[in-house]
Amino acid sequence: MTSPKVPAADQTLRILSLLAASRGPMPANMIAVQLGLPRSTVYHLLAALQEHGFVMHLPEERRYGLGIAAAELSFAYARQEPLSRIGRPLLAALVDRLRVSAHLAVPHGRDVLYVIEERAPGAPSLVTEVNVRLPMQLTASGRAILAALPRAQARALFPDRAAFVHRHDRGAESGTAGAEPVIDRYSRLRSVLDTVTTRGFAVERGSVTPGFSSVAVPVLDHRSWPVAAVAVTFGDRDADDEDPASDGAPDERLRALAEAVRETAETLSARIHGRPAAV
Q1: pLDDT, tens digit, for every residue of 10-23?
Q2: Whole-number Cα distances in Å, 279 to 181, 197, 201, 273
Q3: Which UniProt key words apply to this protein (predicted)?
């Protein structure tokens, strides 16, 4: 059953959402135009928001921006760890279904930070434990997040070759059989991200830990912005064994794993008021 809208509350939240999405403080008349609201209504709501600290007025610029109370909401959100609380049972169910280890990671600069690890029974310990940070371009989770970002944003994260960090020397240049090419420049990363977009999920083979591969799908917020990624990790030898997700060829089994990961990511996206994940 859909709850009835409260006009003043709806308009107030629309103002806060607009200011949050803006590059900087905005004039009241621009807020009114963009939201299609009367200017008098906008001024009244801004005054109330300012009184409670959610909006600050910059008189010299005649603009309004988010206030300290809005920042406190962000800190409170982080303290309550909603992604971890909501995501943990979903990842546990994914592990039960696929019998491989699962992870939830969030972006942290040019890294991903692992906030959940659900290890499958009998599975070995992996480097992707809770609170571990790894370079984005090396991980399936990071690649899923980067592929969901606007191209300009992804490019800004990797302005030059010094931005690319590696865990060990391996890849096409090292001569290791089946290894991924080393991603040491943006053109190579862009090629990988374009493949992620075309395929619909991210894959990593041995770039984090030799002998292990991962698939990942992003978790998107209400703006279709990637706030996290769900991934599963499995031993490469396991991919040759009978897989509970599929009876087909290795690529088909990989897609079956990715589809299960996608379902989990979409459920998590919906539960944080996001949209279905898609890359």
Answers
A1: 999 999 989 988 88
A2: 22, 5, 7, 18
A3: DNA-binding, Glycerol metabolism, Transcription, Transcription regulation
